[in-house]
Amino acid sequence: MTPYHYGGIVEPLVGIRYMKLRDINAFNNYTSSIYPPPPPDPPVEPPAETLTTQKDITLNDMFGGQIGFRYFKPHNRYVLSTDFRAFFGGNWQSSKFQTITDYTEYDDVGVDAEVVNMSTIQTPAIYSKNSEFYYGYDVRAELSYQLTTMFSVRAGMQAVQIGRGLWRGGQGLQGTLDGGEKDQGLFMFGATFGMNFNH
Fold first, then answer.
1. Which domain holds residue 107?
2. Whole-model pTM?
3. Residue 3, in any domain of the structure
4. What total number of domains does the chain contain?
5. φ and ψ of 93, to 5 deg
6. pLDDT per residue as tens digits for the range 11-40
7. Is residue 100 part of a domain?
8. Which of 59, 82, 78, 62 is nearest to 70 (CA)?
9. Contacts (Cβ under 8 Å, ≥6 apart) of 57
10. Cβ atoms of 137 and 161 closer than 8 Å
11. How do residues 112-136 score in pLDDT, each as one tens digit?
12. Residue 75 lies in a domain
């Protein structure tokens, strides 16, 4: 678009957007009879340890459109820029719940015990699917510095918020895990750094 009076330029943005979010919700339960003192009474035979993991992996595949704008203003060797994008679309969600038990048997108790048997038991995975409508925004501010005519460095901050439509926590089936809602929100904030090469 035509530059403003003080040199700032606005660029409208229209496009598509894809995002993927993977959430892991897990609970571990560990029991052991190999580390004295004191030894168990009555003694447990054979000495062993058991690790039970209940895990729920949730995937969010988000695809839709976005609109927004970018504003930048050059000043000497610096360029100040900011952009804003509002996005929306469909989120295709899936969850996988499974319990995994690792059993390890030893020949003795204490730190010198040696493994004599190991086994892993997995329950059949339980799959769940869902779909939700999501929306949110992405805002970013950056400052770049021109080192040469062909090279510049840039740094800034970025914030992304999804207002609704996310599934975190999975179903929580058949275990101590609590299931999560399928239309949750999420806020993320971070820093950006990059380089530009012009030719």
1. 9-197
2. 0.77
3. no
4. 1
5. -110, 150
6. 999 999 999 999 999 989 988 776 655 555
7. yes
8. 82
9. 22, 23, 24, 25, 95, 96, 170
10. yes
11. 667 788 889 999 999 999 999 999 9
12. yes
